[in-house]
Write a structure and sequence with these properties.
Number of strands: 15
CATH architecture of the largest domain: Alpha Horseshoe
CATH class of the largest domain: Mainly Alpha
Strand order of the largest sheet: 7-6-8-9
Distance between the termini: 14 Å
Largest sheet: 4 strands, parallel
Number of helices: 17
Radius of gyration: 27 Å
């Protein structure tokens, strides 16, 4: 959060400087920004309209100057062309307050059947503009935020098809407005690329993130170069004071750690619940809840595997609620383990955001077991954790990079040195051996760094 805040204020400072530069160079007669020229004798600015109308040349100097007494400053004309948009961005970044977000929880629908692309009927009907069918599906309780295998939600499809009535309907039913899809494009990125101002305004009204980065490090604002009307739509559209988000809680697949026989019996009475206590969590995928019976006795690698899967790590009070209620707010029961970013990791999954290591590739320079913070990790343990976090394991050390290999991994801060690093060579901190030259977009990091990233659920510089 701190890095994003710093990034925002860096942008504010840059934009404000450009805006102030322009304001200091307005036409001295009429404050116009159009067709500016500079007076050779005094250096002040004036517009061609005033000069052609034979108005006094410079009110600041009280001297009569004609057209042949001025010159054009080409570099300044680029600033003039975008001054209104720069002002809008400046005002937005300084005065914008995020809307209040109210969350609801609902059980997962059982009607989200997928095809070979991971698409549901809702995806297809949104793409084809079938408003009535979309509304019928939403009324039956289908998950409005289901993603296909490319990460696209129904909102991506509706925005791409430019079906504003369906976009409005999806938003009213709790569609998440800033889910990154393929190449981390959010619906707002797509709307800007389509140059569809009504769609842009609608998405911004419902809280779309203007500072969301795609894989090339571009925000929706960055895609509006020299398109002032689009920038105005992005920066001047008022936001709703309250945004509703409906979180869908998946069907419970529970992994229990240090729970009593009594608690296991309670869980057995809950219908539709799948419970496991036998296997290593590193080998069990799609676990939705990890229950810790005793906070003083837990397997560290199980916690880390849960974090990377987006598992909700809860204490045993969750069991009591599950036996009494049909829908439980899991956030109320997240375990208290200050050394692990449990809330952050779970909300990342609920918000349909990429996994921690998405877009990152790892090559391990060592193959032996090592101890990190008192816990022993085999090379297979570390590779499994990387895979659970969405990263890719390389069999060979990277020797050259293609242009398409360099992009911004989703969770890398855009203000740190690792912003465009996609290849990580992992070494044992006790046996460092990384003196050779490495490629741009590649860096050496220790196994301990990898574990610290998992525990904090962020890419540490």
């Amino acid at each position: 959060m701190e890095s994003k805040t710093n990034n925002t204020w860096n942008i504010i400072t840059t934009v404000a400087q450009e805006v102030n530069k322009v304001r200091n160079e307005l036409c001295a007669n009429c404050d116009s920004l159009q067709d500016i020229r500079y007076f050779k004798e005094c250096g002040h600015a004036g517009c061609m309209k005033c000069l052609n109308d034979n108005v006094i040349g410079c009110l600041q100097c009280k001297k009569s100057l004609q057209v042949n007494d001025v010159y054009n400053y080409d570099d300044f004309s680029e600033i003039i062309a975008n001054v209104e948009a720069l002002d809008n961005i400046n005002n937005y970044l300084k005065g914008h307050k995020p809307p209040k977000v109210i969350t609801f929880f609902s059980p997962e629908s059982t009607i989200n059947k997928r095809d070979h692309k991971g698409e549901t009927r809702l995806h297809k009907d949104c793409r084809e503009g079938k408003l009535d069918k979309v509304e019928t599906l939403l009324k039956t309780g289908v998950d409005v935020n289901t993603q296909d295998f490319a990460g696209w939600t129904a909102l991506h499809e509706a925005v791409t098809a430019q079906k504003i009535d369906i976009v409005q309907l999806l938003l009213d039913y709790g569609a998440f407005v800033s889910v990154p899809g393929l190449n981390y494009d959010t619906p707002l990125h797509i709307a800007v690329q389509k140059q569809n101002i009504p769609l842009i305004k609608l998405l911004v009204e419902y809280g779309a993130d203007l500072m969301a980065f795609d894989k090339d490090g571009k925000t929706p604002i960055d895609l509006c170069v020299r398109l002032d009307d689009l920038k105005a739509a992005l920066c001047l559209t008022p936001r709703r004071p309250v945004i509703y988000k409906i979180y869908t809680i998946p069907l419970p697949k529970v992994f229990c750690m240090n729970v009593t026989e009594e608690d296991l019996h309670k869980l057995s009475t809950v219908s539709g619940l799948t419970t496991s206590t036998e296997h290593s969590l590193l080998n069990v995928g799609d676990v939705t809840y990890l229950i810790i019976g005793d906070n003083n006795k837990f397997n560290i690698k199980h916690i880390q595997a849960g974090i990377l899967q987006g598992t909700c790590v809860v204490n045993r009070t969750w069991i009591d609620d599950m036996t009494k209620k049909s829908v439980v707010n899991p956030i109320e029961h997240i375990a208290t383990l200050p050394q692990y970013a449990l809330h952050k990791a779970f909300l990342n999954a609920l918000d349909k955001l990429p996994k921690l290591f998405d877009g990152m590739r790892f090559y391990f320079c060592h193959t032996h077991t090592q101890s990190i913070d008192g816990c022993k990790y085999t090379i297979e343990d570390l590779k499994t954790l990387v895979n659970l976090g969405g990263g890719k394991i390389l069999a060979r050390r990277p020797h050259r990079l293609q242009e398409q290999d360099v992009y911004y991994p989703y969770h890398s801060s855009k203000n740190i040195n690792l912003a465009t690093v996609t290849y990580y060579l992992i070494y044992d901190e006790q046996r460092p051996n990384h003196t050779e030259h490495i490629l741009t977009g590649t860096t050496y990091k220790s196994s301990k760094w990898l574990i610290n990233c998992i525990n904090n659920f962020c890419i540490i510089d």
